[in-house]
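Predict structure. Input: Acyl-CoA dehydrogenase, 388 residues.
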Amino acid sequence: MSDFPVYAPSEEQELLRATVRELADAKIAPFAAEVDEESRFPQEALDALVANELHAVHVPEVYGGAGADALATVIVIEEVARACASSSLIPAVNKLGTVPVLLSGSEELKRKYLGPVARGEAMFSYALSEADAGSDAAGMKTRAVRDGDAWVLNGAKMWITNAGVSEYYTVMAVTDPSAGARGISAFVVEKSDPGVSFGAKERKLGIKGSPTRQVILEDVRIPGDRIIGAEGTGFKTALATLDHTRITIAAQALGIAQGALDFAIGYVKERKQFGKPIGDFQGVQFMLADMAMRLEGARQLTYHAAVKSERAMQGEKIPDLTFVSSACKALASDVAMDVTTDAVQLLGGYGYTREFPVERMMRDAKITQIYEGTNQIQRMVIARQLLK
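Output follows.
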């Protein structure tokens, strides 16, 4: 036998996949349509994930977490998304909100905020975008002004996932308006801080179970030790965070696409036209083959990126992390949009109705091409990495 290492998830990671899939099928999938229809938070999913310690598996053991690596975290998000995209944003956004603290926060900050997340007592959201600062995040207007030993924050953050449900928020704010991107700092803001409020829930095409709202900051006074890293390093931390968390959006896209493909395969085996299952027709088989090929290609790139992410989190310098994280996010989300659209097509008129889950999956897939950097921005990032 060759000594070449197996390029695949470990046996332990595949066991994790089976565990999460079983849990998602039993405790999350039965509520997915209702969560979407009623645009309500998937509390059943949160309860099930917390009970099984799957809501924030990435938190290191030293802070009370499971200490799962980046690939294991991807597998958890992927399998939850296969059942319900809204629910997959629980582990995904917990990682997004906490990675800035993990990367740049003081040891005191890590111990204070990662423990409650690991125990399932709090969720952690990420507040970067503003109404006029989306792709141009460095153009943000939210201000943080030093006042003695404290900071006072004013501004409004837009498109914040799980806003109002999460207890904690990583907030990027301008501390030196004359310094451009180098004048942005990162802070931990708590939901209970005086002056914190939330806008109305956005009425969305998909992921309706995950509330998306403005986070409004009006003279929010927080202790000085809530700054994440040194003053002026917030934007650098934000970009470094996205190098890791774009991969979790790719994972969500993979799960949505896999759920749609699995349902479509089951359907074409049973649906009969012209006296035989439509899965016997070559045109249908070609569609399934293309869906599965592209999905598996995106999965392998995503897993490859996750391994690099984990190595980077352990302190290794990974020169192409930005490239692979952008590439897997763009590819997986484009594939998810294509696969879910084809799944609707394979179900014909039934696919277009809410009686079947593929129309929901198609709507949910769209956001993966938009958030954490649109796929147009990803292509710019990829090209710059190639050309530098």
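The mean pLDDT is 97.
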